[in-house]
Design brief:
The chain is α+β, with helices and mostly antiparallel strands. It has helices spanning about 40-55, 75-80; strands spanning about 10-15, 20-30, 35, 60-65, 65-70, 85-90, 95-100. The chain is elongated and about 60 Å long. Bound molecules: zinc ion.
Amino acid sequence: MKCPVCNGAMERNKDVIRQDGVEFEAYRCVKCGEELMTMPQLRSLAAKYRRLRNARQVTFAKWGNSIAVRIPSDVAEECGISEGRQGLLTRDKQGIRIMPSG
Ligand SMILES: [Zn+2]
């Protein structure tokens, strides 16, 4: 890929948006610094912002030797979570994911 501004070489570059710490990948011109995003790179960044917009602040509490998280009632209702229902907790790079199951 060539730079549309100076015709220099473009290379993949990872960067972070300072205001919110969101990481993204784009092509950056080694000569003039012009940045370009491909459609998959754009879609990936848009998906990160969608997740961030839906994020909710929660507080951790102690429950015996464990830590509990209070799930807001509207989120529980939307996800079909009620008392006694089973779920699966998994860990990934970003943190913890809880999926209602049984
Ligand atoms: Zn350039």
